[in-house]
Amino acid sequence: MNELLDRLRDPFREFPFADSAWVVGGAVRDAFAGIASTDADIVVRGDAESAAGSLARATRGGRFLLSKTFGSWRVHGGSLPFTVDITPLQGADLTEDLSRRDFTVNAVAVPIRNGVVVDPYAGQADRAAARLRMVDASAFRRDPVRLMRLVRLARQHGFTPEPATVAQARIDAALVNDAPPERVMDELVRIVHTAEAWRGFELMDEIGVLGALVPQLDEAKGMQQSANHHKDVFGHVMEVVRYTCELVADPEPVFRSLAPRVSDHLATPLADQLTRGQALVLAAVFHDVAKPATRGETPEGYITFIGHDQLGVEMAERWCDEHRTSRQLARFIADCVRHHLVLGFLVRHQPLSLRQIDRYLRTVEPVQVEQSVLTVADRLAARGPRFRQSAIDAHLALSREVLRVHFDQVDNPVKLPIDGAEISKKLGIEPGPWLKDLLVALREEQLVRELLTSEKAFAFAESWVSKADMRAFEHRHRPNRR
Question: Is 112 within 8 Å of 9 (Cβ atoms)?
Fold first, then answer.
């Protein structure tokens, strides 16, 4: 027995339940592969609640009921070196319990005290061959979240799903929507965490799970686009996901000297156990989700997707709500989808003034960095008959320029020599929406001209007010004199 397996068994050897208990599942799989685990699954013949109680008391840890359906208890903290889940045997004996598990590599049990490894489904041979094989044809029907786990284990450990398992996954793919959405999201997040996460989405598509989770992506298959694109809508989305993953992993080829700043920003934790860069990968999946619903064609035969950015926001938000993501992650994805076209429209107007760049940055706030990465990925994935390298070069140059300005503003924030309260008081007008508009105009003036004194700033404010439509101004912002 190896050292890692001994580490898994040691905390339990002296307990009365140890004579009829086994370590099972992923911890055993990882230990044989030389990977230390942060948790352990224990099956006991008998009362799991009693076993959990005695373990918690001895280790001064906490315990709680993990699953009423399976009678599982979790023990954690105290002197325990890892989290422990204790479950009673599911079935008449250990072999029947293992028959109900997902994949053969996870259907291996090691007795806590003495005895041989129990491996009735050749899980050890499959692990050695890096083969992912379902224990039973009913595996996915028993627990549809296993469809997502298939992808995650394949990407995490380099397993190759064997043909019969892939075929059964395709048959059962639609069942993924019957799984608890929180568990689906947990597996999806783990897939996004893997290296070259785009390959995980490719495997999700191969077994039919991606289209089951996001039906619009299935609708996008075979949907022709304009001559700017070399792939159908679905192929384009998958390519954007790939480029996004590559840019998050290494922004230097595109963003050059700005790459360290881009990497640091994207490595910042966002929400739902995702960094901003990892969350951006999900945003890439949804950036064109509304194209099937908005596809049109002009009398001249030009294909359009008018409004797919705005409708895409609604679709992405609805999906996030259905899958119980945090509001922060949902807002992030929505912001990325909402503005993913804006920079592309500005490329043809280069060179942009500082004022124009600042307005763009304020439009896409707070996802300025993410938008630059996403719009580059989107542009790199569009190489149709109308493709011109000069157009791509211009797009990448503008992306670098807007980020240069953004990081400069982060390091040197624009500061006004006069605040809104002072302006309102001097003008004798109550604060209101007009003041926000004026402060934006003052900020732009400070950015491009540097209003160094409060006198100059107030003079600009007086001039700005004097040029406003006074009747509309007074109607909208008339002071309350009651």
Answer: yes
Q: Is 42 left (phi over 0), alpha (psi -120 to 50) or beta?
A: beta
The C-alpha atoms of residue 176 and residue 187 are separated, in whole angstroms, by 11
Domain ranges within the chain, ordered by starting residue: 3-129, 260-411, 420-477
Contact call for residues 170 and 134 (beta carbons, < 8 A): no
Q: Which of 96, 100, 93, 98 is nearest to 109 (CA)?
A: 98
Coarse DSSP helix, strand, coil percentages of the chain, rounded to the nearest 5 percent:
60, 10, 30
Three-point CA angle 116, 118, 119, nearest 5°: 130
Strands 160-161 and 269-271: unpaired
Q: What average pLDDT score do residues 155-165 get?
A: 97
Quick: pLDDT tens for 337-387: 999 999 999 999 999 999 999 999 999 999 999 999 999 999 999 998 888
DSSP code of 349? G
pLDDT for 451 equals: 66
What is the Cα–Cα distance from 321 to 313, expressed in whole angstroms? 12
In this predicted model, what pLDDT tens digit does every residue of 185-224 receive, in sequence order? 999 999 999 999 999 999 999 999 999 999 999 999 999 9
CATH H-level, domain 3-129: superfamily: Beta Polymerase, domain 2 (3.30.460.10)
73-94 CB burial, b ≥16 within 10 A, e <16: bbbbeeebeeebbbbbbbeeeb
What is the 8-class DSSP label of residue 103?
A: B
Alpha-carbon span 214 to 294, nearest angstrom = 16
Give the separation between CA 146 and CA 76, rounded to whole angstroms: 25
**What are 453-482's pLDDT values in tens digits?**
788 888 888 888 887 654 455 544 444 433
Residue 116 clears pLDDT 80, i.e. is over it: yes
- pLDDT top residue among 439 and 395: 395
